[in-house]
Amino acid sequence: MAFTMHSHSGQFCPGHAKDELEDIVKHAISVGFTTMGLTEHMPRYSLDELYPEELDDPQASLAALPPRHDAYLAEAHRLREKYSSQIHILVAFEAEFIRPSYAARVLSLASSPSVDYFIGSLHHVAGVPIDYDRATYQRARDACGGPGEEPLYAAYYDEQLDMLRTLRPRVVGHFDLVRLMSEDPGRDLREWPAVWDKVVRNLEEVVKQGGWLECNSAALRKGLDEPYPGRVIAEKYLSLGGKFTMSDDSHGIAQVATNYLRALTYLESLGVTELWTFERVAQPDGSATLLEKSVPISAVRAGLKLE
């Protein structure tokens, strides 16, 4: 009963990921996934939000994003129907919260009957990407009052709280993404009491809302020692009664289920015995109900067909 709640394709994230979505789904089936959340990135809406690879023709790049999202939803539904006997596909998207005005856009996209859920993520601080490259990360640090990193971390968790309270996501993406480009990604944030207070506050908000953090194995393939979230945060979250779902945050065939066994071992070392996913149950009127489903970690491990 292996699954992922967070994935991307090169078909709908060109320049950012690789491979056609259908090929990724077929590969996910081959490695033993029985549930897969498709979560392509939502559109961005301003020229200053484009990434370097999109700047050869900025207007065309920006104009392509909303219709690409619509095309993604159509293809995801086609694949759900085509492979329904082999894998349970959930159709979702990864939200952005670049600035507060994004809230209305996210909630509008999420209200579509074509969408089962969305990942609540934060990839920007002070409007600047924090996970693109080190130079851009340093721009974000400087925008928060650097040269040290503590103000950036504080701003990240403040903006994350705004995202949590405004969007109330059922799944929170890479909770501590801010550490990816850090000078010390393994830093114990309790060394910064004011930042740690913000971390605990945000974890309490997630638990209060009934949301889940993902254990995101992408941190391992990006060179970090632990998945998102790191151990100190994960321990605190669990002490508050938090629940984990599981994600590879794959950006192509080569990353499907990458480092899953390491991530499962990490969770087991924290005392986690079960993970959570969704089951979409169709209703007679054509709508669907999304049920929360507990899966033993042992069943996730046993379901994987990895070399």
From TrEMBL:
Pathway(s): Amino-acid biosynthesis; L-histidine biosynthesis; L-histidine from 5-phospho-alpha-D-ribose 1-diphosphate: step 8/9
One GO cellular component term: cytoplasm
Source superkingdom: Eukaryota
Keywords for this protein: Amino-acid biosynthesis, Histidine biosynthesis, Hydrolase
Claim: Zinc-finger is one of the keywords in the record: no
One BP term from GO: L-histidine biosynthetic process
Xref: InterPro entries: Histidinol_P_phosphatase_HisJ, PHP_dom, Pol/histidinol_Pase-like
Gene3D superfamilies for this protein: Metal-dependent hydrolases
Record family assignment: Belongs to the PHP hydrolase family. HisK subfamily.
Cross-referenced NCBIfam families: hisJ_fam
Name used for this protein in its record: Histidinol-phosphatase
Organism: Cephalotrichum gorgonifer
